[in-house]
């Protein structure tokens, strides 16, 4: 049976209105998920400002409410939704690189209804079950915060095996995700310098164990000489500084979309054997390990969430998030 529900419609110009919407029955291989929580992401700014024909939200957790034919996940299973509706059979998917699927069917919350509404229809292959005891607001940390940052760390590890320090440009949600995952993966004593222009964000990073730097203080960044650098800011000047700071054999991983980078190939890459790589979201098969890390470090990782607001206060949640003085803001649905 289709389900009628009220959903937030992003009209553009930071206007969110509520409207009636029908969620169809799940088809073959599909699940209908009753959403419990969705974390706000920096990229939601596009839909917030430009509007969207679908219900946004791509960091969602919920419970299976109905199943289509040819599925195996039982009704009532809690889990998180992987952004990309990957095909599962192309050359990328066959090696596990589901984030680089060559025949992707869609992206939840970007061109398919996502997690700011009460339901979402997804392929079973995109759903990742979590233990029943895990709070579903906290479970959203498995997505952009843990997933995207863990994948970026894995990209750096492909190029550098002796990593003893790291630098993160930008202490927004992805930067904070990198900070916590570096600490979780390399140990609480592993040095992570993290820069931002916002004193509020620097303080939050410090509370999570980072060594905060004013992003305008070039000398301070250069003095840290990290083995690996991450850019979550998307700014050209930040990328170039992050690469310069990572000395010989250094690696710069670019995660934030945005501006470019200017390279002097001989001096920046060849002579010091440095590498610049991109990192996009994460692979579905990385979720299982991250779930173990979340279970072992739930108190620490969930500190990245600073606010939880119910869906009928989504306006307030977006205002708050884009004020720049929050960690992750989670929008929760009333579940019955
Ligand atoms: Zn996101
Ligand atoms: Zn594929």
Could you characterize the architecture of this molecule?
The chain has about 325 residues and is α/β, with parallel strands linked by helices. Helix content is about 30%, strand content about 25%. Strands 3, 4, 5, 6, 7, 14 and 15 form a seven-stranded mixed sheet that branches. A six-stranded parallel sheet has the order 10-9-8-11-12-13, with helices on both faces. The protein has a two-stranded antiparallel sheet with strand order 1-2. α8 (about 235-245) links the parallel β11 (about 230) and β12 (about 250-255). The longest helix is centred in the middle third of the chain and has 16 residues, at about 145-160. The mean pLDDT is about 95. The structure holds zinc ion (2 copies). One zinc ion (ZN) binds next to loops. One zinc ion binds near residues 58 and 59.
Low-confidence stretches: none
Mind telling me the C-alpha Rg?
Answer: 20 Å
Percentage of residues in DSSP E strands: 25-35%
Small ligands present: zinc ion
Secondary-structure-derived class: alpha/beta
Shape: globular
Helix content: 25-40%
Separate helix tally: 12
């Amino acid at each position: 049976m289709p389900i009628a529900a009220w959903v937030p419609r992003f009209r553009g110009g930071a206007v969110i209105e509520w409207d009636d919407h029908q969620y169809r029955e799940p088809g073959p291989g599909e699940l209908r998920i009753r959403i419990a929580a969705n974390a706000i992401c920096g990229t939601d700014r596009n839909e917030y400002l430009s509007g969207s024909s679908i219900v946004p939200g791509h960091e969602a957790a919920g419970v299976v409410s109905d199943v289509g034919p040819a599925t195996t996940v039982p009704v009532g299973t809690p889990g998180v939704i992987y952004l990309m509706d990957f095909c599962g059979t192309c050359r990328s998917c066959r090696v596990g690189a589901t984030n680089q699927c060559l025949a992707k069917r869609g992206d939840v919350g970007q061109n398919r209804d996502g997690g700011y509404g009460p339901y979402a229809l997804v392929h079973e292959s995109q759903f990742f079950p979590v233990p029943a005891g895990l709070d579903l607001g906290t479970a959203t940390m498995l997505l952009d915060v843990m997933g995207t940052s863990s994948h970026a760390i894995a990209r750096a590890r492909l190029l550098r095996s002796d990593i003893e320090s790291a630098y993160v440009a930008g202490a927004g949600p992805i930067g904070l995700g990198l900070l916590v995952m570096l600490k979780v993966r390399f140990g609480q004593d592993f040095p992570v310098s993290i820069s931002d222009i916002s004193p509020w964000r620097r303080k939050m990073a410090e509370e999570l164990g980072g060594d905060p730097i004013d992003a305008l203080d070039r000398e301070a960044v250069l003095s840290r000489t990290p083995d690996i650098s991450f850019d979550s800011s998307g700014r050209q000047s930040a990328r170039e500084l992050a690469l310069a700071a990572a000395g010989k054999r250094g690696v710069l991983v670019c995660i934030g979309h945005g501006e470019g980078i200017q390279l002097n190939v001989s001096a920046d890459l060849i002579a010091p054997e440095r590498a610049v790589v991109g990192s996009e979201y994460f692979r579905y098969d990385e979720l299982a390990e991250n779930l173990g890390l979340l279970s072992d470090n739930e108190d620490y990782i969930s500190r990245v969430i600073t606010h939880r607001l119910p869906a009928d206060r989504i306006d307030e949640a977006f205002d708050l998030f884009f004020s720049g003085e929050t960690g992750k803001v989670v929008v929760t649905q009333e579940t019955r």
